[in-house]
Amino acid sequence: MARHLAEIFEDKALADKIKRRLPYFYQLAELESSRAGKIGMEVGSLRERVIVALLVYKFGDKNIKTEIPITQPEVDVELYGQPISIKTITGKGFTGVKLIWTVDAQKAKQFRESYYPHCDILLVQINWNAQGGFYYIPLETQERLFKKIGKNKYIKLPKPGTNPRGVEISNNALSYLVEEKEVKNIEIIWKRSRIDYNPYKRWVDYWKEK
Fold this sequence. Notes:
Elements: H1 2-10, H2 12-32, E1 34-35, E2 38-39, H3 43-59, E3 64-65, E4 77-79, E5 82-90, E6 98-100, H4 105-114, E7 120-126, E8 131-137, H5 139-149, H6 151-154, E9 155-156, E10 167-169, H7 171-177, E11 184-189, H8 201-208
Parallel strand pairs: 5-7
Antiparallel strand pairs: 1-2, 3-4, 4-5, 6-10, 7-8, 8-11, 9-10
């Protein structure tokens, strides 16, 4: 499995395209999910689709499965039958990467007790007007760190009385993971483009069709 996702990062032409195009695509996703200047929660789904589309572009749609049962909360897509989790964070650090979305404290604790890494991660670090990256974190790397530091240091539970909406990989754990030698990274300068965006044009064009 590792060799397939690694191909994205070892393909220089594709890596260069990701550096150039991913900020533009994610800016479009923000525009498409914004109202009155505020970005809605649906931006996460749009960002995920951008990465799934990259996998389809690279490996072909017959090798990609997107219809994933809700019983697999971390899995967003399968490549050659192997599960992949797509995660996105914003900012220069590695805080806020969710393992599961829940506001129930008991469910969060139960999740921590039963959790064990089970799929490769593709992580996009958005850092507008600065450097971020696109990371491939193999399952084996996650497993090794999880066994080394234990679930209590690997997983961050929501603080009682707050509404953070989920259980996270701890900042320390993720910061350590991205520095591991097996992890692949494409460094990206997140520059915004001038985009003349009309959220209704596509739909107006559809209405014009016979």
